[in-house]
Amino acid sequence: xxxxxDHATAVAFKNMMRIIGIVAIIAAVxxxxxxxxxxxxxxxxxxxxxxxxxxxxxxxxxxxxxxxxARPFKVGDHVNILGEDGIVxxxxxxxxxxxxxxxxxxxx
Length: 108
Description:
The chain contains three helices and three strands; from the N terminus they run αααβββ. By secondary structure, it is α+β, with helices and mostly antiparallel strands. The protein has one domain. Strands 1-2-3 form a three-stranded antiparallel β-sheet, with no helix packed on it. A hairpin with a 2-residue loop joins β1 and β2. It is elongated.
């Protein structure tokens, strides 16, 4: 991944694949331990519980990955987001870190 994407994008994809893999392994172990239709039922229930519990974080992570892929701005750019001026310090899958701008644009 690092050959095609920058470090932040590669780390974001790696973390998402790790989360998906862990959930799949847990569902497989529980399904194998119980076996048959009971395993399918417990695996499905576990998937629903995990899905609801990580819904907000997963949504933000997916939005962050799209942001990293689309690259509307990069580290070092001066941006104005919702009226807040700043310089982009870091872009990750869950947040974008801004350094407060030394000057404000707009009304005083």
